[in-house]
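User: Predict structure, ligand pyridoxal-5'-phosphate.
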Amino acid sequence: MTYFRNNIEELAGYAPGFQPSQTDVVKLNTNENPYPPSPKVMEKVHNITSESLRRYPAPLGDIFRTAAAEVLGIPSDHIICTNGGDDLLTICFRAFCDEDRPAAYPTPTYSLYSVLAALQDSPVIEIPYEKPDWLDRLAQASAPLTVVCNPNAPTGSHVPARKLAELAGQLEGILLIDEAYVDFAEENCIQLARDFENVILLRSLSKGYSLAGIRFGFGIAQPKLIEGLLKVKDSYNVDTVAIEVATAAISDQDYFKANVAAIKAERERMVQELRALDFEVPQSYSNFVLARCVKTDARQIHQNLAEKNIYVRYFDLPGLEDKLRISIGTPEQDMVLLQALQELRGR
Ligand SMILES: Cc1ncc(COP(=O)(O)O)c(C=O)c1O
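Assistant: Predicted complex:
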């Protein structure tokens, strides 16, 4: 006997990365930014008034929309504020998918997509990236919701915007481009969200802006789509503190750009260092790398590192069993990891 709908009963649920309670660990498992948020963010936090907490928040997060619109060079009616990028994903799956309306996406990718589809009782069309014609196959499937994570997680790979523009033009349904990691790439798809009536972009402040703890993301699309998405969201999906803090963060572009540049430079160094330790590491356009353990067992390394309070991510999923996803940390954190890997290699 269960009180739940069948699909919920059968669902394993999304498994978030491990969040250790201690702080004296090297935590490279959930793609957080290793640097603190902008000092202007902390100033905002300290100046939150009790009156602003007593009241409900602005339902649309207007001050953030205005600030983001200015930074991105788009009208503010092209933006929906969300409780992290994940909230936008939930809104989209609720808006576009059901028993008769499948979601399609290339795999491997962010494991939340399949969970959200299952919650909607929606079939999924999963197309392996390995197929050289995966973009054509997505176009042929022409699902009501197609999701492409770009840069992709957990691989860190990137598809040129012009290819996604071609796909958007071929699809009859929505193309949701998950750009949670785009701050670390060389190119983004913002022009597609302006040009195509069926494109939605996901953005997150968790990675580039060091705000994973505050939960703030946003979507970019033409106003007609934004109006539809607003109908689906919770009435007050972003809280007052999050709106204030996210606005301060996106307004401090100098701090953001310096931080992102440091992480990208460190990423290139890590790719070289890991290759020198016999890992196979493809180019990444994200704030993490996916390292294939050629001579050792990935699960075992993951375990051995955890025993030393060094956390990286291991996915027991097809195609990922021999790989570790490693977030880019500070040079000091990364050095601790590299030294531990060197020691483990010597065993
Ligand atoms: C691919 C991808 N999309 C979206 C998100 C959502 O990010 P958040 O809800 O923290 O903004 C994540 C988080 O890890 C992610 O990896």
